[in-house]
Amino acid sequence: MSRPTTRLTLPLVLLVAIAVTHCADGTPTEPEFGPELDAPKAPAPSAAISDAANGGANESFFFLPPLVPEPTYTGLFDDTQAPELEICELVAEACGLILAKYTMTSGQGSETIRVNAEKQNYIVNWHTDEFDLDDAKTYRIRVLVGEEELGFADVDVIVSGGQLSSAGTNDFIALKDGKTLPVKFRIEQETEVTVDASGAEISTPDGGVTLDIPPGALTGEVEISVKPQEPVDDQLVVVEFGPDGLVFDEPVPVTLGYDPATLPPGVAEEDLALNLLVDGRWRVLPDGSRDDVAKSVTALFFHFSTGGAGPAELAIFCPGDSDPTTFETLPEALDAVIEGGTVEVCDGIHTVEDVAVSRPVTIRPEPGATPTLTTSVAARTLVIGGYATGTVLIEGLTIAMTTPQVPSFFPYAIRAQDPYDQLVIQNVTFNTDAASWGALRALATSVPGGGVTLDGVT
User: Fold this and answer.
1) Per DSSP, what are the bridge partners of residue 291?
2) Cis peptide before 419 (omega within 30 of 0)
3) Which of 14, 68, 230, 323 is 20 to 30 A from residue 354's alpha carbon, by CA?
4) So what's the pLDDT on residue 332?
5) What single DSSP character describes residue 410?
6) Which residues are registered as beta bridge partners of 142?
7) Pairing relationship of beta strands 237-242 and 163-166 according to DSSP bridges
8) Ranges of the chain with pLDDT below 70
9) Cα–Cα distance measured from residue 276 to residue 77, given in angstroms and rounded to the nearest whole number
10) Own/partner long-range contacts of 290-297 (Cβ < 8 Å, ≥24 apart)
11) CA angle, 298 as apex, 293 and 299 as ends, to 5°?
């Protein structure tokens, strides 16, 4: 999670003037790029910038233009913090004399830190003409929450205080019309807690993410991080948990809250589940639940990755693999996915007996797998029926039927019975004892236009 602070000790070479202009009411506007200016003095050896874009330890804090170039970020803006901004003289890589402090309620004159919800940043205007700045000194701008320093930026005064050079960039800032520098920064939602073997309950400030780490889940102290991200794919909520890949000795219940107003088109609230991002795909977790009153989804995490609250579109059926993110039985996997979802089958020979498929789903192998479904008794593998619209697709599997026939039993690997709409069997190999078994028995369906399609069946 943490990264060392980047120290920038090279002289500034590329110089771009950034003019800060004012509206009629004196409010600084967004900076505009101007012509190249003469080179300022080189920054002091200790001059640096520390934020998430420049090697800072806090990956949720970003300085913004005009102090630095526009950074790249993916998290969610956190407007619930009460940051403080401090400007001091830099002495031996630390703050010396403090020139000014700004909070959400106090500052220099009438100036305070404000939240710009539309632009998702915090801003405070540093009126440099109110200070006796020395062009022989370097000044540090620090942002803190409580005792924690989120980041800092060192600046040098150029031309008797008329310009400031940002040591973290190859730019310097020309201050005009009142010599005001808008200091803008962004804080993203994140929770970091050190947890030991005794466990802990962790929640984000807004209560949207909760982890209940039980005693014994960890063997020693671990710094747990919870960082909400911008939603991707069809996920309403995306949260990056860290350290990535951390394995728990006991399962950890994780709950993600969601806003029904953000449901993607075609997704219903009852479709939502807690998914885990595995190999770039969202996989629904076993034993999950949804709370329609609290508007949240819950599941057990056995290791950390990125989690999401979204439609349960993919489940993995893989009995006996000891992977807690896969389903032990095919019926459980089918029940977990939404209508139109997919159940993938891992490699191996799996016993499947009289499993009812009563709504449109796809059953296929995991990428690269060649699974076989079989039975241990005189039973069908799949029984299809009970849906009036949509398609059940069975593809890419091998179905092996070798159990001896018994009297009065209809020995077919797949049985389709009324009602059903579309049943598509594609690239499926049936290995059967020809004297005892058949591959498919499709009874008539009462659904208009319903029927069975075979494609590439062996």
Assistant:
1) 296
2) yes
3) 323
4) 97
5) -
6) 86, 152
7) unpaired
8) 1-47, 158-178, 403-410, 433-436
9) 23
10) 294/257, 295/257, 295/258, 295/259, 295/260, 296/255, 296/256, 296/257, 296/258, 297/255, 297/256, 297/258, 297/272, 297/273
11) 160
Q: Which residues of 353-368 are buried (b: 16+ CB within 10 A; e: fewer)?
A: bebebebbbbbbbbee
Q: Two tokens at 150?
A: 């989120």
Give bridge partners of residue 32 from the DSSP assignment.
19
Q: What is the DSSP code string of 30-85?
A: --EE-------PPPPTT-BEESGGGT-S-TTEEE-TTTSPPP---B-B------EE
Q: For residue 293, what are the contacts with CB-CB under 8 A and spacing of at least 6?
A: none
Q: Please name the amino acid found at residue 179.
A: K
Closest Cα to residue 230, out of 217, 243, 239, 221? 239
Token pair for 380: 């069908």
**Tokens read off for 245:** 């890949």
The model's pTM:
0.72
Tell me the three state secondary structure of residue 387: coil
- Nearest alpha-carbon partner for 298 in 240, 358, 257, 346: 257
